[in-house]
Amino acid sequence: MVVAAGLRIAVLALLTTAVLAGEGEGNSGEQSSPMSVAVGATILGAMCFMMALFCLTNHKDPDMRKYTYEAVSTTISIFAAVLVFQTVNQVVEANLLDGKSMEYQLLVDTLHMLSWYILLQAWLAWTSGAIGEAPKSLDEVEINMKCYGVILAHLTGFASINAWVTMQHLEFFAATPMRSLLVIPIGALSQFLLQRVTDNLRWRVSMMDDGEEDEFEALWNETSEEAENDVMGLSISFCAAQALRFLISGVLPDNEGKESWSDATSHTFSQVGMIW
Questions:
Q1: Where exactly are the transmembrane stretches of this chain (predicted)?
Q2: How far apart (Å, rounded) are the C-alpha atoms in residues 103 and 109?
Q3: pTM for this one?
């Protein structure tokens, strides 16, 4: 069944490519247009990707199937988190940050990050049964915790990236590449202290009912710690990449890692090579 589906996709892609290539040829025998070639190559690439995905998700080795589905789930989670965060962040920027100083933007972005951080803790606490109604199935709770933990960790991570990169754009830190590097230890220490606070709060909540940590509360603590580590990893690594790009090229990218067209096209080959 999988092979048949793959063959149908391959035939469809080849026929589509042939049609697009034929459209680029006039009566005088002109060559295919660059757009036709690009579209055809994109279709062939998508076909190869889908066939590889079919093979991996139906692999005879259960471990291969497991890790394939985990990779697909994580990828979907990342893209979903990007869309949600960008939507919320654009609303915040349009209503609160337009024309404001960098210091004010840093304050709002930090509060935005803390809002996602609190939502992460509260949602996982409710899902695990640490607060609210006690769950009945540990397996169901574990699945839900992994689902919400991953997507909320990415949402919080993107908000954290936005806040710490905004700090890098303050006049003091944006003055030199070495100063922009200072944001890395500041961000790491701040998030480490925040993790200690949330860890203490989780312990207190776990001890409130019966004075001991049950398996659901232990799962809540474990999932929350994994999510917090993801948040720190995302934000610190992005800030490090920003600072290194600033050090190499002399240009500090914006909060999304973008540069103006004039800056992007003015780099030397050695700078491009070092960045890559």
A1: 37-56, 68-86, 106-126, 147-166, 172-194
A2: 10
A3: 0.78
* CA distance linking residue 43 with residue 61, whole number of Å: 29
Residue with tokens 């960045």: 275
Q: What sections of 129-214 are H helices per DSSP?
A: 138-168, 177-181, 183-210
Encoding tokens for residue 8? 């149908």
Q: What are the tokens at 242?
A: 């920003």
Closest CA to 120 of 193, 218, 229, 204: 229
CA distance 202 to 221: 7
What are 129's two structure tokens? 């049964």
What whole-number distance in Å separates Cα of residue 253 and Cα of residue 264? 10
**Each residue of 162-186: pLDDT tens digit?**
999 999 999 999 999 999 999 999 9
Residues of the chain predicted below pLDDT 70: 1-32
In the chain, where are the structural domains located? 1-21+36-58, 69-275
The total number of residues shown for the chain amounts to 276
Of 88, 244, 98, residue with least CA distance to 154: 88
